[in-house]
Amino acid sequence: MADIKGTQLIHEYLRHNKKFPHVFCAGCGHGIVLGSLIRSIHGLGLSKDDVCVVAGIGCSGRLAAYVDFNTVHTTHGRALTFATGIKMAKPNMHVIVVMGDGDSMAIGGNHLIHAARRNIGVTALILNNNIYGMTGGQCSPTTPSGSFSMTTPAGQMEQSFDCVELCSAAGANYVARGSVFHVNKLDAMIMEGITNPGFGVVEILSPCFTQYGRKNKFKSPVEMYQALKKKVTPIERFNEIPEAERGERVPSGVFVKKNKPGLEEKYYEMAAMCQGGE
Amino acid sequence: MSAKNKGKSKVTIFPDWCKGCGICAAFCPAKVMELNDQGKAIVVREEDCINCGFCELHCPDFAIMIQPKMDDDIPAVCRDLLLKKTGGQVAGESEESNKEKG
Q1: Is B26 in contact with A225 (Cβ distance < 8 A)?
Q2: What is the mean pLDDT of chain A?
Q3: pLDDT per residue over A4-37, tens digit each?
Q4: From the list A6, A31, A226, which residue is nearest B60 (CB)?
Q5: How far is the alpha carbon of A129 from chain B, nearest alpha carbon, in Å?
Q6: Could you report how far apart the first and last alpha carbons of chain B are, in Å?
Q7: What ipTM was predicted for this assembly?
Q8: pLDDT of the residue at A20
Q9: Rounded to 5 degrees, what angle do the CA atoms A192, A197, A202 make?
Q10: Residue A32: its chain B contacts at CB < 8 A?
Q11: Which residue spans within A60-209 are E strands per DSSP?
Q12: Contact with chain B for residue A272, Cβ under 8 A
């Protein structure tokens, strides 16, 4: 596997006994994230047995079934709790959690903030498509106010969550935001998130045409990608733009990068100390 | 990444895996791909490909593969020998044929 790259590389890491093409709709960004995850793990030179991918429920939950690592498909919102257990039992395993926005911030919101507070050494990829895609297009905690969904036909009136601010405030070690249009940057972010100690969060903006796009006057998946290209701004540039002119722009890049040791490192240190003290 | 690489790569699209989202055709800087009447991507101007890698990175269905162009003047037998010597650079092709057998 030394020379191969691109799609050939991705095909090496897929479970070909599963049905392909995968289950995601045409133009869904989750497939791009899957490719990016595979490239990042290959780029870090990790062996397949040293990686554990934990996924919850939702469109993003299907992602774990397709990759040839240790994978767990868990209950809704509880992916982080399973991952915490795996990381504590096997601290050398690279645990990567793949969650959707509803999975991580609605039903699993509590687990997300506490995983960030504990600073457990897992990497969470939050695939934010602004809607509950699999169950029929209900509005989620990240549906922007003013946009339409199946359950908010006259427009969402609630405020939406900002995943990056939530995780930074809760104390995560590494917080970044990328998009599926800027894949090379996303690869770098995922790689950095895996290598950084402690809890890492990478929020990935991924368009959902089937449920979100059709209700919000996007004519094709391509238009959603064009909008993403326009909207996502690097954080350095975003700070230069005056607040009144920002409009719909979303900052992307690395927001928090700390080097605190993770919970599992502290735990094994304490265990060694207690055993030595006897 | 530049005009220097123009025409040096071979673009393959797996029609079974393509879902016809149109991202490759819309964003390709050299307009190599187009959608056919079934809505799936096809390669129309392969010689214009500048090997930027956008389509390969952004295809959500892993349906596009870009490889360096093989010289078609080399007879097939010699090509196989060459491939064996280099460790089978077109691994995808040989694997597919193995799968069909098994």
Answers
A1: yes
A2: 92
A3: 778 888 888 999 888 888 899 998 999 999 999 9
A4: A31
A5: 15
A6: 39
A7: 0.85
A8: 83
A9: 45
A10: 57-60
A11: 70-73, 94-100, 123-128, 131-132, 138-139, 174-179, 200-205
A12: no
